């Protein structure tokens, strides 16, 4: 993601990526550091200006009735769903999730899996960092396990 200095190069579709932030949307484990505006509506408006699209995605993540609320007043799961909606609307081809199921109940995890499948259908590359084996099993993707 380019958050730390390191060696090596990153390629996407055979082209060297110079500005990773232009290609990667990341959802961190602690989403509190990713929300900056005064309302859910303003937050999602940083991704798109299309009101109909924003309303549709907020309904899909069950946040439509909270669009005037301050993001900091949302629960942890609601904040994650807001960022999930934003990642889906993002035109960035790579989405990285760091522990996306922390703070989510089973129902919310099911919603997350549906969204992950929709994003892969859109052609997005999804990278998930997790310790949640139930979630891994239900995602049906390629699994790479790193062990020391």
CATH-level-4 superfamily name: P-loop containing nucleotide triphosphate hydrolases
The CATH class name reads Alpha Beta
Low-confidence stretches: none
* Beta-strand segment tally: 5
The amount of helix comes to: 25-40%
Tell me the CATH topology.
Rossmann fold
| Domain module tally | 1
The class by helix and strand makeup works out as alpha/beta
Overall outline = globular
Identify the strand order in the major beta sheet: 3-4-5
Please indicate the percent range of residues in DSSP E strands (runs of 2 or more): 5-15%
Q: Please summarize the sheet with the most strands.
A: 3 strands, parallel
The residue-averaged pLDDT reads 87
Please give the CATH architecture: 3-Layer(aba) Sandwich
Radius of gyration, taken over Cα atoms and rounded to an integer in Å: 16 Å
Q: Report the span from N to C terminus.
A: 22 Å
In DSSP terms (H or I, runs of 4 or more residues), the helix count works out at: 5
What is the ordering of alpha helices and beta strands? Answer: EEEHHHEHEH
InterPro entries: ABC_transporter-like_ATP-bd, ECF_ABC_transporter_ATP-bd, P-loop_NTPase
Membrane topology: Peripheral membrane protein
Pfam family, one: ABC_tran
Domain ABC transporter: 8-102
SSE layout:
Blueprint: E1 11-12, E2 15-16, E3 24-27, H1 40-45, H2 51-60, H3 76-89, E4 94-98, H4 106-121, E5 125-129, H5 133-139
Parallel strand pairs: 3-4, 4-5
Antiparallel strand pairs: 1-2
Helix pairs in contact: 3-4
